[in-house]
Amino acid sequence: MKTTLFAALFTIFATTAAFSQKQLGVFDAVKLNDSTTLVMCLNGGLKANTTNTDGNTLLMEASKNGSYAAAKLLLAHGAKVNAQNEMGNTALMEATLRGDSKMAAILVQAGANISVINTVGETALSIAEGFDKNDIAQMFIAKDPHVKDGYAKTR
């Protein structure tokens, strides 16, 4: 009886432990801001500019999810700050859409180009203005006072 009970409890424990330690993909690690997993993957040979099926880079996913530590880690490992997905969006555009001024500042400091144009003709500045993300728009204009001139030419 004790052996059967012990075996049943062990099976339940092993199943629960295996479920809670389920392997997550690197995009999940970025979404969860799991720097430990991300750095292990990067040190193990993962390219910082890896994309998913939508063409989103790891940096874009970090930007979409407010994963600041992951974004900084990816940038330190050579992630292309101006990479574009299938829609032509950049990590900066994703941060701007979310209204995440902290992420936008990280990306601008890393050299993000405010004037990149996506497939529908929008820039990070036009997105900021179109979605009333005024603090982000002001940051862009302060960084490059002539960015508004470039935007006017694309309209």
UniProtKB/TrEMBL annotation:
Gene Ontology biological-process annotations: protein K6-linked ubiquitination
Keywords: ANK repeat, Repeat, Signal
Residues in ANK repeats: 54-86, 87-119
Stored InterPro entries: Ankyrin_rpt, Ankyrin_rpt-contain_sf
Molecular function, one GO term: ubiquitin-protein transferase activity
Top-level division of the source organism's lineage: Bacteria
Signal peptide: 1-20
Family annotation (PANTHER family): ANKYRIN REPEAT DOMAIN-CONTAINING PROTEIN 39-RELATED, BRCA1-ASSOCIATED RING DOMAIN PROTEIN 1
Protein name: Uncharacterized protein
Organism of provenance: Filimonas lacunae
